[in-house]
Amino acid sequence: MYNDVMEVEILLDDLESKCVKTYNGFINELQAIKAGRANPHVLDKITVDYYGSMTPINQMANISVSEARILVISVWDKGAIKNVEKAILAANIGITPQNDGSVIRLVFPELTEEKRKSLVKDTKAIAENMKITIRNHRRDANDEVKKLKKDSLITEDDVKELEKVVDKKVNSYIEQIDNLFKDKEKEIMSV
């Protein structure tokens, strides 16, 4: 098949790992987008000063969806509720926490049609950036393939075959990103 199978496998594994990382990054970005429903992932990047160390909220509280638009944060150490509330306010996620002394509630507002369209536009921009990143991975992989050819480790036929393999893999990830975007768009636009 290829003269230097090891180099080719490393190249394809590297491409796969880069594409997976980009794809998972896109999933994380989508989870952080508020679509008018209570979404615990909006708190993922928020950390609280808890006895001198910055601690993620999900490591110091139970986070649950009590109703479609209400997120309930039940902090295990009641003395830290004020710090959690301050961290949420400081994170500027667009939702004001309601503290009743035992739990914190986040009420997600209904989205206007204009806000929904704006969210879809922002989400589309994120999807496009992820697809550009994946295409850059393809370019890098194809450059490596050409380098292998230049170093006489593979033949011209191998180059064409490998470019097809790289294209197929990249197109698969681009299609998956498109599908995720379409699903998120439906979620955002549904009232």
Summarize the model shown.
The chain has 191 residues and is of the alpha+beta class. The chain is built from four helices and six strands, in the order H-E-E-E-E-H-E-E-H-H.
Description of the structure:
- The chain is 58% helix and 15% strand.
- The chain is of the alpha+beta class and 191 residues long.
- A 4-stranded antiparallel sheet has the order 3-4-6-5, covered by helices on one side. A two-stranded antiparallel ribbon has the order 1-2.
- Helix 3 packs antiparallel against helix 4.
- The mean pLDDT is 88.
Structural class determined from secondary elements: alpha+beta
Low-confidence runs of at least 5 consecutive residues:
none
Query: What oligomeric state do these chains adopt?
Result: single chain
Average per-residue pLDDT, rounded, comes to 88
Query: What separation lies between the terminal Cα atoms?
Result: 55 Å
Q: Key terms for this structure?
A:
4 helices, 58% helix, single chain, alpha+beta, 191 residues, 15% strand, four-stranded antiparallel sheet, 6 strands, elongated, two-stranded antiparallel ribbon
